[in-house]
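In this supplementary section we document a worked example of the pipeline. Step one takes a protein sequence of length 271 as its only input; no multiple sequence alignment statistics are reported here. Step two produces a three-dimensional model, which step three serialises into structure tokens for compact storage. The input and output of this example are shown verbatim.
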Amino acid sequence: MIQTYLNYTGRIALIATAVECRGEWDEIYRRLRDKKSPSPEEAERLLATIQCKVTTVLDPDYPAVLRERCPKPPFVLFYYGDIKLARDSNQILTVVGARVCTDYAYQKTKYLVREIADRGYIVATGLARGIDTAAAEVTSEMPKKTIGVLGCGIERMYPLENEALRDRIAYNGLLLSEYPGDVEPMAKHFPVRNRILAALGRGTFVGEAHSHSGTLITIAYAMSMNRDVAALPFRCDEEEIVNNQMIKTGAALIESPEDLELFLNTAAIVS
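The serialised model returned by step three reads:
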């Protein structure tokens, strides 16, 4: 059904619709369904506001894993950098975790991510505070090793203190968002963003998760897509941290780079 609407709409009108709807998937869908794309004149005006690169579900360079596996695959991706980094999901490790995390998890995540990047893998992260930042800090200086997925417009950054990190990823790796321009970071955008992170990786590594953490949304998405999950273990008295519980219920226990590499090598191949 969606393909019928896309065929009717065409690439230019699809991009213009995404900009007009500020990246909101449900609103874009409604416009396509009701055949209410912008006029050619309005489409031209909307496209003139785009400063970055763009790919759509109609394009050959659109990441196949998002088209095939992601719930509500983004109609349009706005990005800077090399979109080809998202092509081979089997080489991508998604790293997620708490915004407020322990120093142990922060430093251990940096160490593990550095080692796994040196072994040929690409790291996908949401660029939030905490564990996301730990992962991105390590790989952002490396060429073609980082995918940053934003929960706001591609021209914005949240949190603001990660703006330099964002710019390094845009230059060295791939920075992408389904939200155009300066769309503000809204609470509802981050759980939606997490479906993209979960879909991109061959596996998802949890540096630290709390009982009410948004990280658990990413894990739920990963599991629904048959993605494997791994977690860093903690002391048994860290009651607010749910990593150990995750390990008890099937997540791979990661203590070393060798553990993480084995996890990725044995995780289900993404077809």
